[in-house]
Amino acid sequence: MLPSPHSSSSSSEEKLATMEPQSPSTLPVFHIENVSCFYGRHKALEGVYMDIYEGKVTAIIGPSGCGKSTFLKILNRIGEMESNVRVDGKVQLLGKNIFARDINLNLLRRQVGMIFQHPNPFAMSIYDNVAYGIRTFHRLSRPALDEAVESALRSAALWDEVKDSLHQSGLALSGGQQQRLCIARALAVKPKVLLMDEPCSALDPIATLKIEELIQGLKQQLTIVIVTHNMQQAARVSEYTAFFSTDERRIGQLVEFDLTQKIFTEAEQPSTRDYVAGRFG
Amino acid sequence: MRDAFAPLAPSKKLFNWSMGTLGFFLSVVALIPLVAIFWSIVSKGLPHLSLDTLTQLPAPAGLTDVPNGFANAIIGTVAMVAIAAMISLPLGILTAIYLSEFGKQSAFASWVRFMVTILSAAPSIVIGVFAYAVIVLPFQSFSAIAGGFALSILMLPLVALATEESLKSVPNSQRMASAALGAGYARTTLRIVIARALPGIITSGLLAIARASGETAPLIFTALFSQGWLESFFGPSASLSVLIYNYASSPFSEQNDLAWAAALMLLIIVLITNLLSRWVASKR
């Protein structure tokens, strides 16, 4: 039996041990230790311990307002851009503290890409959208850039649809294509981790299916963390699942983190079982 | 619960119709002053607008058999507005970029924004007196530079506030997308935010120029007026607005006519600038 997620911090060592999934076959890309998050004086997230494993898809599920997105936006420190957010605790990317004073945020975000809930291509051509990130870091020759753009669009399964219209506006694409363009744009800078914040919630079922297939293919080359409202989606695409929920003080908690299969069939926590069965949230 | 497809009651129909008619009628009433101004300026100015008026200097008062025009005033207005634009556009746009992208809601930025708003409401005659005190008095001369300076103070808050609005209208998701790719603040601001807001920024600049072209009060104290050509930026300069001000109340009817023609010219300049800004705004 796990200690309750909001038990005292003195049990944190024990909690860390018990909440680690059974088969950590690979090294963690992210090591998250006792992370809490505050918006001003309001505490949004408390005491999260989690390891994110290389080459795996980790899904984050939970009811609205449980801090899933807040948590995701800590990992590339993009939440700081949106609001006055403060994070306590330890987050390590490949052993390095991302809150270190001398961290280069631009390089962190290059390594940890992000796909947003609503597709947000730039108001420029498809080609320039994909080239934007590359141009931020490298001055490539035209052929090399062409090649990098093509390769990113191929990885995002968009190349065949847009190869004849690379110089048309990215905004002219359909919603699903726009989201894949955003994925291509993120892949172009060769991140190690891709964070996806409900990437399909604004898309129709067919576009959603394409993104899910894409995720399956992408985990060969990178680590994916995906926040989703859709439990079936979590079950379909992920190896690990983290269930977040709010306690009676309305503070977000990590309730349970385990292999996806275990979360969906034999979760330890009653609230996880209830949520997965659709009984709340 | 009434049937959704039932026809409206006659009283409601009547109310609908009468409010619609009233709105239309009042809109027409609101247009009357505009049309009246336009009509009187065109009808009184057009007969006196000729090649001479656009290319010649004002004739000495009382003389009727010499060419009469306001070319020097057109040049003066264009020159002083250009000086004003060169000062106020960079300052105003950079202020707006600071407020929208960097200062945001910080105490200093809020204070700057408040001050700029106050400045935008400052009466133009006060701005004229200020420019008189800081430029004309020390240099002991009315000058085109002083006129341009006064106009630039007038334009600065207009440019800054309108540019900040167009920068703020760029969705935050665009900034986030850029940052998430590892682009820094400078690159995001330049390549994403400014690039997207550019039509709006150009529009705000053009509207400020249109506004400044017609200003009289700041120029009376600074550039004064001149019967001759603009020879130096350090000397007094003619301008269309001050020419209208001087000549409209003149006892000589030729000068009154010239004032009407100058008013039409000013109207045309302002109209062209406005049309240009609308055209730029319609891009994208």
Structure description:
The complex is a heterodimer of chains A (281) and B (284). Chain A is of the alpha/beta class and 281 residues long. In chain A, 37% of the residues lie in helices and 25% in strands. Chain A has a domain at 28-119 and 191-276: Rossmann fold (3-Layer(aba) Sandwich), CATH 3.40.50. Chain A contains twelve helices and ten strands. Chain A has a ten-stranded mixed beta sheet with strand order 5-4-1-2-10-9-3-8-7-6, with helices on both faces. Chain A starts with 11 loop residues before the first helix and ends in a 5-residue tail after the last helix. Chain B has eleven helices and no strands. Chain B has one domain (71-282): MetI-like fold, CATH 1.10.3720.
Topology of helices and strands:
The complex is a heterodimer of chains A (281) and B (284).
Chain A: H1 12-19, E1 28-39, E2 42-53, E3 57-61, H2 68-75, H3 79-82, E4 85-93, E5 96-97, H4 105-111, E6 112-115, H5 126-137, H6 142-155, H7 159-162, H8 175-187, E7 193-197, H9 205-218, E8 223-227, H10 231-237, E9 240-246, E10 252-259, H11 260-266, H12 270-276
Parallel strand pairs in A: 2-10, 3-8, 3-9, 6-7, 7-8
Antiparallel strand pairs in A: 1-2, 1-4, 4-5, 9-10
Chain B: H1 10-45, H2 51-55, H3 71-103, H4 107-120, H5 124-139, H6 144-168, H7 172-180, H8 185-213, H9 217-220, H10 240-248, H11 253-282
Helix pairs in contact in B: 1-11, 3-6, 3-8, 3-10, 4-6, 5-6, 6-8, 7-8, 8-11, 10-11
